[in-house]
From TrEMBL:
<keyword id="KW-0004">4Fe-4S</keyword>
<keyword id="KW-0227">DNA damage</keyword>
<dbReference type="InterPro" id="IPR036895">
    <property type="entry name" value="Uracil-DNA_glycosylase-like_sf"/>
</dbReference>
<keyword id="KW-0378">Hydrolase</keyword>
<keyword id="KW-0411">Iron-sulfur</keyword>
<keyword id="KW-0479">Metal-binding</keyword>
<dbReference type="GO" id="GO:0051539">
    <property type="term" value="F:4 iron, 4 sulfur cluster binding"/>
</dbReference>
<dbReference type="GO" id="GO:0006281">
    <property type="term" value="P:DNA repair"/>
</dbReference>
<keyword id="KW-0408">Iron</keyword>
<dbReference type="InterPro" id="IPR051536">
    <property type="entry name" value="UDG_Type-4/5"/>
</dbReference>
<protein>
    <recommendedName>
        <fullName>Type-4 uracil-DNA glycosylase</fullName>
    </recommendedName>
</protein>
<comment type="similarity">
    <text>Belongs to the uracil-DNA glycosylase (UDG) superfamily. Type 4 (UDGa) family.</text>
</comment>
<feature type="domain" description="Uracil-DNA glycosylase-like">
    <location>
        <begin position="37"/>
        <end position="193"/>
    </location>
</feature>
<dbReference type="Pfam" id="PF03167">
    <property type="entry name" value="UDG"/>
</dbReference>
<keyword id="KW-0234">DNA repair</keyword>
<dbReference type="GO" id="GO:0097506">
    <property type="term" value="F:deaminated base DNA N-glycosylase activity"/>
</dbReference>
<dbReference type="InterPro" id="IPR005273">
    <property type="entry name" value="Ura-DNA_glyco_family4"/>
</dbReference>
Amino acid sequence: MSASEFIPEGADLATLRAASCRCHGCDLYKHATQTVFGEGPESASVVLVGEQPGDREDVAGSPFVGPAGRLLDRALSEAGIDRETVYLTNAVKHFKFTERGKRRIHQQPGRTEITACRPWLEAELERIEPDLVVCLGAIAAQSVIDPKFRVSKQRGEVVPLGAGHAVATVHPSAVLRSPDRDAAYADFLADLRVARAAMR
Ligand code: URA
Ligand code: SF4
């Protein structure tokens, strides 16, 4: 199973987004509210890739609008990166969760779902052709850069990717969960500053 059969050939970004609403490339569409496709200008020179939409994003239909998104907004602004000019997306486009009472608890997507959904991310990157891809967390880095990429060892390193570059850092949710949130935030911000310097 894969998203590829749901992807119209030669489509622009708006057509891709519309088509993604009908994707049945893996089982995640069955329980989630909606597909959360990437958002931002097609002319963006920077693409930020997260893991998957969370509870808030699933309801809103937009990426990074919950707590992790607020932390990301703050860090982008402190690093001098304008959120309005970047394209924000996720490695997996549907929310994966388990229900505990009325709460929906985030579950990490597995290899099957990451692989099934990758064609959407590839299609977004093909249309946008960014100079720089910023991977937020291991799932994004392994999906975009290399399945063997180690964020703990290689974060903040600019690496070649296609005709451009990529840099990986931790996921903003990892900063929120860190026992030393200030230090984790400072390291996250330092990686985003590396990304800023790599932007043309
Ligand atoms: N975490 C992600 O990886 N992506 C979102 O869109 C929200 C939270
Ligand atoms: Fe399709 Fe991706 Fe959603 Fe799976 S997670 S149904 S592959 S859009």
